[in-house]
């Protein structure tokens, strides 16, 4: 008959089973067990923080915790200090950290993954109470066997790399705890650990520093992509009526972003057919500011952030390919395409931009790269280090192999930077516009590749070469989970001891790539 396992809150009536299990668990620490009044006090102070595991109705282990204002103690503390010399006067329901003061399982019941269940239950409490994380001082009971050969730091490193097994530390590392430092004289009575302990931390990736939901960034973001059919227009007003039609359609689905393709306004170049290609593109640039103004108006009136695709612009007599972010609060920002295709340089005389930056929005930090830019992985890697969660890529491609370069590279960027990537392109043809003959596109939203996401890494696809919109929801919480618990962690696992990416720009100090540690803000 199979054993029945129950995880529940500890009660005062469980004490005698608890004492028996603790005496067995700490046989190397003679007489070390919690007295009944102490357990009763813990239960009365913080009942939901005291967790028991029972097998066939018998309590065989527990996890005991308090909440502390960790800033008052810092990383240099002893067990007596953090527990208020066993009075638990340090427990503060308004604190910010769940402090683990005890975890044990009766030796006869080890191998049943009971301790893992206790740790998981403790993590749930931490998340439900919106605490920053779990902190605990951990024993290193096998250190006694190596103390004449290894320092505590050397011992911990060998346990981390599985050269040495420690029943406590090995388990804690496998449960996503990290060793922040070594504590001296943490628990002097722990002779097996020689009084040393590891300061262990587990970070709550769901922690919200400010629970004012009005000001919080959204966790689920709705993206609307406009796959626009190229057609002739009788001037810029007609073009913007068509653009407004799509903004309206995307807004009807309560989207947070509306994304247009690269050079979506190219049909207006027909007005300048009497000029050479470079002259026609500069003529098109005359409309850019008025188009940007209309998009800013649409963003406010339709309550949607708009990525305006891209348009040519002349700045100090230089021609650039620029994309605007028109926020729904009325503000706007811009990005100038950095990598230009040979045709953009030879036919239009364009110049590349020189600024790599993320943009703050009410849905978190985003990045914008224009078409060819996404084929250079360094740019999006820098944006990821700046906190980007969604990368938007307006593009314009005339052939399927050109489109595939954009698509495959965009998918790679989603995987290697653990972010979402949305691409939007034009379809159709403009036979009366020089150098803008045909367009091929399939607009898409791509995801990282792990269990939380679609198996093919694609959240949504448009029908190829068909005018339409694509609406897709992306969950930013899944990115947090991926960063912390992913099967692989592309950002975290980079060998920054061997290589790095630098931003080289004379007007700013050199910026170096740093090892990734998940944090908010």
Structure in a nutshell:
The chain is α+β, with helices and mostly antiparallel strands and 521 residues long. The protein has helices spanning 15-25, 36-45, 79-82, 114-128, 152-160, 169-174, 236-252, 277-284, 288-301, 342-346, 377-385, 400-416, 476-485, and strands at 5-9, 51-55, 58-68, 97-105, 133-138, 178-183, 197-203, 220-230, 257-259, 305-307, 311-315, 318-326, 332-336, 359-361, 364-368, 390-395, 420-429, 438-439, 444-446, 458-461, 468-475, 502-503, 511-512.
Give an account of the 3D structure.
This protein is of the alpha+beta class and 521 residues long. The protein folds into 2 domains: 5-208, 3-Layer(aba) Sandwich (Aminopeptidase); 215-485, Nitrilase/N-carbamoyl-D-aminoacid amidohydrolase. 26% of the residues lie in helices and 25% in strands. The protein has 13 helices and 23 strands. The chain has helices spanning 15-25, 36-45, 79-82, 114-128, 152-160, 169-174, 236-252, 277-284, 288-301, 342-346, 377-385, 400-416, 476-485, and strands spanning 5-9, 51-55, 58-68, 97-105, 133-138, 178-183, 197-203, 220-230, 257-259, 305-307, 311-315, 318-326, 332-336, 359-361, 364-368, 390-395, 420-429, 438-439, 444-446, 458-461, 468-475, 502-503, 511-512. Strands 8, 9, 10, 11, 12, 13, 14, 15, 16, 17, 18, 19, 20 and 21 form a 14-stranded mixed β-sheet that branches. Strand 14 and strand 15 form a beta hairpin. Helix 7 (236-252) packs parallel to helix 9 (288-301). Residues 221-476 form the CN hydrolase domain. Keywords: Hydrolase. Belongs to the carbon-nitrogen hydrolase superfamily. NIT1/NIT2 family. Pfam families: Acetyltransf_1 (PF00583), CN_hydrolase (PF00795). Residues 5-212 form the N-acetyltransferase domain.
């Amino acid at each position: 008959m199979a054993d029945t396992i129950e995880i529940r809150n500890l009660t005062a009536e469980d004490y005698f089973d608890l004492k028996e299990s603790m005496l067995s668990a700490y046989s190397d620490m003679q007489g070390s067990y919690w007295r009944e009044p102490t357990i009763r006090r813990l239960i009365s102070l913080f009942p939901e923080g005291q967790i028991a595991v029972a097998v066939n109705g018998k309590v065989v282990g527990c996890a005991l915790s308090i909440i502390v204002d960790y800033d008052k103690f810092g990383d240099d503390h002893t067990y007596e200090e953090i527990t208020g010399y066993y009075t638990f006067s340090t427990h503060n329901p308004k604190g910010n950290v769940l402090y683990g003061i005890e975890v044990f399982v009766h030796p006869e019941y080890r191998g049943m993954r009971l301790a893992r269940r206790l740790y998981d239950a403790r993590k749930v409490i931490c998340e439900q109470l919106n605490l920053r994380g779990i902190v605990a001082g951990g024993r290193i009971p096998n250190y006694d066997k190596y103390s004449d050969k290894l320092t505590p730091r050397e011992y911990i490193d060998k346990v981390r790399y599985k050269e040495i097994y420690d029943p406590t530390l090995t388990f804690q590392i496998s449960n996503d705890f990290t060793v922040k430092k070594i504590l001296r004289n943490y628990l002097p009575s722990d002779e097996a650990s020689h009084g040393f302990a590891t300061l262990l931390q587990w970070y709550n990736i769901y922690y919200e520093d400010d629970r004012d939901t009005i000001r919080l960034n959204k966790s689920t973001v709705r993206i609307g992509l406009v796959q626009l059919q190229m057609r002739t227009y009788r001037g810029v007003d007609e073009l913007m009526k068509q653009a407004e039609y799509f903004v309206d359609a995307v807004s009807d689905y309560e989207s947070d972003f509306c994304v247009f393709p690269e050079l979506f306004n190219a049909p207006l170049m027909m007005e300048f057919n009497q000029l050479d290609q470079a002259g026609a593109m500069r003529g098109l640039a005359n409309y850019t500011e008025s188009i940007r103004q209309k998009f800013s108006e649409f963003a406010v009136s339709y309550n949607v952030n708009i990525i305006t695709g891209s348009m040519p612009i002349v700045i100090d007599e230089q021609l650039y390919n620029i994309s605007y972010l028109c926020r729904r609060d009325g503000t706007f920002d811009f990005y100038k395409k950095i990598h230009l295709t040979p045709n953009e340089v030879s036919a239009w005389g364009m110049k590349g931009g020189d600024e790599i930056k993320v943009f703050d929005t009410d849905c978190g930090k985003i990045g914008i790269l224009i078409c060819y830019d996404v084929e250079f992985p360094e740019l999006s890697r820098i944006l990821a280090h700046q906190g980007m969660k969604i990368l938007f890529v307006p593009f314009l491609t005339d052939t399927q192999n050109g489109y595939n370069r954009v698509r495959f590279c965009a998918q790679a960027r989603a995987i290697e930077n653990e972010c979402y990537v949305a691409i939007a392109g034009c379809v159709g043809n403009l036979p009366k516009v020089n150098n803008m003959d045909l367009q091929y596109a399939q607009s898409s939203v791509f995801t990282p590749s792990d269990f939380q996401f679609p198996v093919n890494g694609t959240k949504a696809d448009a029908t190829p070469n068909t005018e339409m919109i694509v609406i897709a929801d992306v969950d930013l919480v899944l990115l947090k989970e991926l960063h912390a618990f992913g099967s692989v962690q592309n950002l975290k696992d980079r060998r920054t001891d061997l290589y790095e990416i630098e931003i080289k720009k004379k007007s700013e100090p050199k910026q170096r790539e740093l090892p990734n540690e998940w944090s908010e803000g």
